[in-house]
């Protein structure tokens, strides 16, 4: 099998390296991820393990393309909803944890978690003690907030996208097409702008609407502190859902890839 070589690292690695992540940069990532999801979802494919670790930069350039990787847990929901609980703890949708049939909208919840993390440095649902059951309870509640000061610099448009994605009812949740059409991406996206143009605006703090504003200098240390704390703690809470809950329906269970154990749907 021949696959495309990505040497730009994943999204987490780039954040740690550059010590900040602006809304402009976030839209550059999310627009591409949403477009990728729109494509696979049109085929009925659900990724089921969408997270920053699985979003790779093609190269080290500032505007490098984003590639979605690791389809080891992907399932086909084109003929019938999926049932196996699987994914990675902080990013999994409530319906997956609740052991009810689910579809492509489970990926959209994960996308909402990713956007939230990119803009503040920590996930919307998090248990500092690493209690997995407590984390699941928080996720299934669907209740989250935008705490100060971490969210003071973030635009209302970004928050609106997140609210639309972190909606407990999958039928009410934004789909990939709706995300791509959202004002946040339309206003902030720099995918087609010349490098010098978006680079200037991405670092600007004078935009009247707060668009494109890089995380303020005084927030950088706070942002990185949160991100590094989550990075270190997630090794203890990053369990694969299918691994710890087991196969809860009549499908064939578990296969082993590298260091992780995954549950699969064989529809």
UniProtKB/TrEMBL annotation:
Gene Ontology terms, MF aspect: ATP binding; protein kinase activity
Domain spans labelled Protein kinase: 1-185
Alphabetical list of InterPro entries matching this protein: Kinase-like_dom_sf (IPR011009), Prot_kinase_dom (IPR000719), Ser/Thr_kinase_AS (IPR008271)
Keywords noted in UniProt: ATP-binding, Kinase, Nucleotide-binding, Transferase
Pfam families given in the database record: Pkinase
Entry-linked PROSITE patterns: PROTEIN_KINASE_DOM (PS50011), PROTEIN_KINASE_ST (PS00108)
Gene3D superfamilies the record matches: Transferase(Phosphotransferase) domain 1
Secretion signal, residue range per the UniProt entry: none
Protein name: Protein kinase domain containing protein
Organism field: Reticulomyxa filosa
